[in-house]
Every structure is written in structure tokens, then in C-alpha cells.
Amino acid sequence: MSRQVIINADDFGLSPAVNEGIIKAYHAGGITSTSMMVNMPGFNHAVRSAWSLPDFGIGLHFNLTYGRSISDPDSVPSLVRPDGTFHNGIRTSVRDSDDVARELDAQWNRFVGTSLYPAHLDSHHLLHQNDPLIYKVMAEKAIRENIPLRRSQIVHSIPNVPNPLMSNTILLDTYGDQEGLQRLLHHLFSLPEGITEIVCHPGYVDDVLRGISEWTDIREDELSVFINEEVPQTIQALGIVPISYKAMMDTPDEPCELSELPEIPRPSQPIKKKILLAGPRPHRELKRKRKTRRWFKKRGTKPRPSATRIRKRV
């Protein structure tokens, strides 16, 4: 099994300066993916930037701790204060699962309303890792939308929870100190087989960010790590394959009938989205089928249905 890495920068959309830092890290080859907040001041700037980066894998960074809800505050009372802003991450009251699902749908709809489509689903402040209720709601959403969900380091013991597509491993660390680059390179050298997600928070600092978050200068320190040329050079030297969450859903470019696909929210989405919903097929099996079709076409005959398919018809 090969070693593949998703290096995901969280908080795209938090502020314009954070966005610019994430884009710089992407162009430098230090990150492969990002996740976007849809209710923060940098959202419109992030969307305009994303339109010019069609190969950039961008997921939905579900947020219940910063800013205001996308839903009508009266419809999600367990999530917000009287003024409509979210409770912060440290709280004792319980979030209602219906409220969480309603707000997740609202944030999802704002994302797809931009003509973009989420490559994966994750959460701000590790919401779905720290709260089993949120994990369940997000896992169900990921299954419905047929996209990957960020792996949780905590295995939640909840009955009837679906099992969405995830990376094999996740690394949660910070890289804003003097040893940040060496720590990241160590992670790359020690990368296990399969798909590993490395989470980071690079970005520039502006007044907008200072008014929202205490996580400021460390973003620029992390940015200096993820624009360092040693990162992509090390990935290449070690034979690691850098991917985004899009690659987890890629399928061969084969025609598919619209009637075979479930209804999707935005029928104008590009073909990749429709293929995503159709589900992947093993590469060798596809090559065999194509070769068989070419052989029968050359002979001017049609392939006979398999015994399995005959039995299904009976």
C-alpha cells in the first residue's frame, strides 16, 4: 500500500489575510487541501479565490463557535446566545441534535450556493471529535452527501452511527514554534501506509482576525513552515503521494446515465460531482470491461450477460 498525505489548512474564510496565507501555502506545495468557514468575514474573499483554483480541494469547516448562525437564531436556540451569536467552545449546556442538523444544512447550502461543492466535511474546534452528538449528525450528513468526513481521534460509542469514508490516520499538531518544520518533516518520515491527514492553520494576520481569534501570530509562524521548499521536496523524496480529499472520491472517466444518479442539490455542478455520487470502481476491473467492450465491438457482436445478472433478472 502506498503512502498518501492530505495536508489540510483549516479556517479558509475566517479573514482575507488568513485566506491569502492559505493560498500561498497551496501554491508553494506545502498544503493540498483546505476547509472553508461560510459564516465569517473572509467568506466572500475565499469564494472568489476558490473560483480561480479549480483543482484546490475545499471542504466545509462546520462552525458552531465563531460568529453568528446561518439559520434563523430562533430555529436553533440551543446553539446561540440571545443576540444570535454562537456560544463559545467552553460551555455546559447541551446542544440539541435537531438544531445541529439544521445549522449544518444551512452552512452546507451556503457553500453549494457558491457553485462550489465540498470535497469533505470537518469541524471548527474539533466539534465532532469532542461531542458525540455532533459527530453523529456530521457522519449522517457525510453519508447522505457521499463525501469523506475528517477522522476523529476519539471512537464514539454511539449506536446506529453510519461509517462514512475517512482517511486512515489523522495527525493533529501545531507548527508555530522553532521546531515546527522539523516536527512536520518527522511526521512525513514516519508516515504510515494508507491516507494520512495532517491538519494545520497557516495564514497572515489582519485586524479582522485579531477581532475574532486569539490564534494570530502562530498562523504566520505556521505559514513559514508550510511555504518552506523542504516540505514538497521531502514528500517527493520519500515517494509520498500528496492528495486532497477529492482524490478519495475520484473515479475513472466513464460515461454515466443521469437516470442512474440520485437527485443532487445543484444539477449544474460539474461532471466530477456526478461521478462522485456514482461511487468508485476498481481500476483493473474497469480496464477489463473496456477491453471486453472493444473486443465485442470489433467482432460486431454483443457481450452475453453473466450468470449472476441472469439470476438477478429471474
Question: Could you walk me through the main structural features you see in this protein, from its secondary elements to its overall organization?
Answer:
This protein is 39% helix and 11% strand. The chain is an alpha/beta fold and 314 residues long.
Summarize the structure.
The protein has about 325 residues and is α/β, with parallel strands linked by helices. It has helices spanning about 15-25, 45-50, 95-110, 125-130, 130-145, 180-190, 205-210, 215-225, 230-235, 245-250, 270-280, 285-300, 305-314; strands at about 5-10, 35, 55-60, 120-125, 170, 195-200, 240.
* Helical content (DSSP H or I, runs of 4+): 25-40%
Shape designation: globular
Largest sheet data? 7 strands, parallel
Q: How large, in whole angstroms, is the Cα Rg?
A: 21 Å
Summarize the topology.
Elements: E1 3-12, H1 16-27, E2 33-36, H2 43-51, E3 57-62, H3 97-112, E4 121-123, H4 127-130, H5 132-145, E5 169-172, H6 180-189, E6 194-200, H7 207-210, H8 217-226, H9 230-237, E7 241-242, H10 245-249, H11 271-278, H12 283-299, H13 307-313
Parallel strand pairs: 1-2, 1-6, 1-7, 2-3, 3-4, 5-6
